[in-house]
């Protein structure tokens, strides 16, 4: 009977569990695991930092419904991945991290990169364990993959003792484990569905909110039917954008603050009442708002505001709601005062943004830049975005037309996710017949967190288009002249504004350093032609370094984005 190594068992178990992608950085003791993964038919992407590797692996989980694997070495390698695990867990995205650790016979001796890894991962994951023998590897990996996608999705960690990687066992001794099926589906309680429909029928100013849980749950077709049959206005959360196209007539994203504030009944699909939705509380919500919550996680129900709980699979529950709406022959009328008020606000906001976008003063402002980008992006492109102003303004001006086509800093507000997400999305697209374009819209600060992953994009010929919206800093910056003056006035560490970054930094040259296309962009014409060239090059990545007015800002908001809670 043939023998099999620990590395082979890990790789084969992942493949059996339909894990198709692995991102990581190799070293002692896990080089052989990466090689075995490729031999088993898993695609391996070598990254430049484990944090970005883990972001990438979790994006695979969100995009495909099956976790990506993140492979890291012991100690510092695993610790770099913790940021990615936390981000995945907070976003409810599945990911499986495989960490090599010290040899068992060296534990507690001060071994190379020794660290209490299983314990360390506990706070950042929903499952953290180490197989006790080679024979246990397939079942522990099955459990990690299953746990990552069942219930509320999240991060899982499997620790592999270094000495187990090359140790061998007779195949006959290893019990086969089959592939875990997709998560089981359950329906909401019938009486809760009836209560929800009654509340909606009685509502004067109802609102549907579509979260990224609806995108993850692939409920797009059913939700669109529901919105069209019920005639309700809907608002997407940042990554709920595209579940129903942003240009759908029922979308009230451009009247977000008014919609939230004046809604009397809110039907939440796969979204939490956390900071992104201002906790569901005043001053951003009506104090008497009635919340109907559709979620797969019972613990999420009635967080911050008591709700009617529709617990279960989102697609199944939308079907239940559709059946009721059809039976009752009910539709929210399109000629109500509520629709009128929302449409009026949408038109007023569009006018303000248009004014800012058409300003031809140089340097450009955010609105001008996003206006031109939005005109050129293909409808089916995947938009990755991070930054503060860059992400917030970009979200309002760059439409999504398809589900799971927006990846951003998410619930955890993590800067540095963009390039890893873009690499994951581009890797998935590369394996499809008809690839879609991945466009990564980055603030200059955000880009810096994982900037070296540009080399990864160049190495694997991933045709990502990176647009760095460069305002010389975090939220805002200084122009080159002001910076020079400041440098004359004293030690910059004492006087330079903490938000500032090097003015007019040549991020485009980071791309050309590795053979990609780089563009320095100052005008709308340069932006148009650079974007056209970038989008037509399917063989290599591009970076547009768009220099904007360092004092450009968001248009006046009714409320600050990070509303302090009244909790
Ligand atoms: C990991 C991490 N570190 C720090 C922050 C704090 N932070 C929020 S936004 C941001 C960067 C904003 O600057 P930039 O990306 O240039 O976008 P801009 O607002 O300038 O357009 C930072 C550092 C964060 N959210 N995440
Ligand atoms: C595997 O089985 C063979 C034959 O039964 C035996 O000689 C060998 O020592 C076994 N190897 C291990 C690692 O147990
Ligand atoms: C365009 O923007 C500049 C700089 O912010 C501003 O001074 C100017 O008034 C704006 N022009 C118009 C027509 O809004
Ligand atoms: Mg910036």
UniProtKB/TrEMBL annotation:
An annotated GO cellular component: peroxisome
Sections of the chain in a coiled coil: none
Gene3D superfamilies in the record: 3.40.50.970, TPP-binding domain (3.40.50.1220)
Residue stretches making up the Thiamine pyrophosphate enzyme TPP-binding domain: 390-546
Keyword Lyase: yes
InterPro entries per UniProt: DHS-like_NAD/FAD-binding_dom, HACL1-like, THDP-binding, Thiamin_PyroP_enz_cen_dom, Thiamin_PyroP_enz_TPP-bd_dom, TPP_enzyme_TPP-bd
Residue ranges of every copy of the Thiamine pyrophosphate enzyme central domain listed in the record: 194-321
Pathway terms, separated by semicolons: Lipid metabolism; fatty acid metabolism
Catalytic activity: 2-hydroxyphytanoyl-CoA = 2,6,10,14-tetramethylpentadecanal + formyl-CoA; a 2-hydroxy-3-methyl fatty acyl-CoA = a 2-methyl-branched fatty aldehyde + formyl-CoA; 2-hydroxy-3-methylhexadecanoyl-CoA = 2-methylpentadecanal + formyl-CoA; an (R)-2-hydroxy-long-chain-fatty acyl-CoA = a long-chain fatty aldehyde + formyl-CoA
Protein name (Swiss-Prot/TrEMBL): 2-hydroxyacyl-CoA lyase 1
Native source species: Oryzias latipes
Taxonomic lineage: Eukaryota, Metazoa, Chordata, Craniata, Vertebrata
Gene that encodes the chain: HACL1
């Amino acid at each position: 009977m043939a023998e099999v190594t620990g590395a082979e068992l890990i790789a084969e178990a992942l493949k059996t569990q339909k894990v198709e992608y692995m991102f990581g950085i190799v070293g002692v003791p896990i080089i052989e695991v990466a090689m075995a993964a490729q031999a088993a038919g898993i695609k391996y992407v070598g990254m430049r930092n484990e944090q970005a590797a883990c972001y990438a692996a979790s994006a695979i989980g969100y995009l495909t419904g099956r976790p990506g694997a993140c492979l890291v070495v012991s100690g510092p390698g695993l610790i770099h991945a913790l940021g990615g695990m936390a981000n995945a867990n907070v976003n409810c995205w599945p990911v499986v991290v495989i960490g090599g650790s010290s040899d068992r016979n060296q534990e507690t001796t001060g071994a190379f990169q020794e660290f209490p890894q299983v314990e360390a991962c506990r706070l950042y994951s929903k499952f953290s364990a180490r197989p006790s023998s080679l024979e246990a590897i397939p079942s522990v990996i099955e459990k990690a993959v299953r746990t990552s996608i069942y219930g509320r999705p999240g991060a899982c960690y499997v620790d592999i003792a270094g000495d187990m990687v090359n140790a061998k066992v007779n195949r006959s001794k290893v019990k086969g484990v089959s592939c875990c099926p997709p998560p089981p589906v359950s329906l909401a309680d019938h009486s809760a569905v009836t209560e929800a429909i009654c509340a909606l029928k009685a509502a004067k100013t109802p609102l549907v909110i579509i979260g990224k849980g609806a995108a993850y749950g692939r409920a797009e077709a059913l939700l669109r039917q529901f919105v069209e049959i019920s005639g309700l206005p809907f608002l997407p959360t940042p990554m709920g954008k595209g579940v129903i196209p942003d240009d759908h007539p029922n979308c009230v994203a451009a009247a977000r603050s008014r919609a939230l504030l004046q809604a009397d009944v809110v039907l939440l699909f796969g979204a939490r009442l956390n900071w992104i939705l201002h906790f569901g509380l005043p001053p951003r919500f009506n104090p008497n708002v009635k919340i109907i919550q559709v979620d797969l996680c019972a613990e999420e129900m009635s967080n911050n505001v008591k709700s009617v709980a529709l617990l279960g699979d989102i697609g199944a529950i939308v079907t239940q709601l559709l059946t009721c709406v059809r039976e009752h022959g009910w539709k929210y009328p399109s000629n109500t005062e509520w629709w009128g008020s929302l449409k009026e606000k949408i038109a007023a906001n569009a006018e303000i943004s248009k004014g800012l976008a058409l300003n031809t003063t140089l340097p450009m402002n955010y609105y001008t830049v996003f206006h031109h980008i939005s005109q050129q992006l293909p409808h089916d492109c995947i938009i990755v975005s991070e930054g503060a102003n860059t992400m917030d303004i970009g979200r309002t001006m760059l439409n999504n037309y398809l589900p799971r086509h927006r990846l951003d800093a998410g619930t955890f507000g993590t800067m540095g996710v963009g390039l890893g997400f873009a690499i994951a999305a581009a890797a998935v697209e590369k394996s499809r017949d008809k690839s879609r374009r991945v466009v990564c819209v980055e603030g200059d600060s955000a880009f810096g967190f994982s900037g070296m992953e540009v080399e990864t994009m160049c190495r694997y010929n991933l045709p990502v288009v990176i647009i760095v919206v460069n305002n010389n800093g975090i939220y805002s910056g200084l122009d080159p002249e002001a910076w020079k003056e400041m440098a004359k006035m004293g030690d910059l560490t004492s006087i330079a504004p903490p938000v500032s970054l090097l003015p007019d930094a040549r991020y485009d040259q980071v791309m050309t350093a590795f053979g990609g296309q780089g563009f320095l962009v100052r005008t709308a014409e340069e932006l148009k032609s650079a974007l056209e060239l970038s989008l037509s090059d399917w063989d290599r990545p591009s970076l547009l370094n768009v220099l904007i007015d360092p004092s450009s800002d968001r248009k006046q908001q009714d409320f600050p984005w990070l509303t302090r809670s009244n909790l």
